[in-house]
Amino acid sequence: MSGELLNAIIFPFGLIILGWGLGQLLLKIQGAEE
Questions:
Q1: Structure pTM?
Q2: Cα Rg, the chain, nearest whole Å
Q3: What are the transmembrane regions (predicted)?
Q4: If 0-12 CB within 10 Å is exposed, 13-18 middle and 19+ buried, where does residue 15 land?
Q5: What gap in Å lies between CA 1 and CA 21, rounded to an integer?
Q6: How far apart are CA 25 and CA 33, in angstroms?
């Protein structure tokens, strides 16, 4: 029960961090090309 609650709290943060990381990576790639 507590595991499901923990998942519900952590999962959205994981997606935000993953999206931010991908954004940073794309910026680095674009910056290197220019």
A1: 0.60
A2: 15
A3: 6-27
A4: exposed
A5: 30
A6: 13
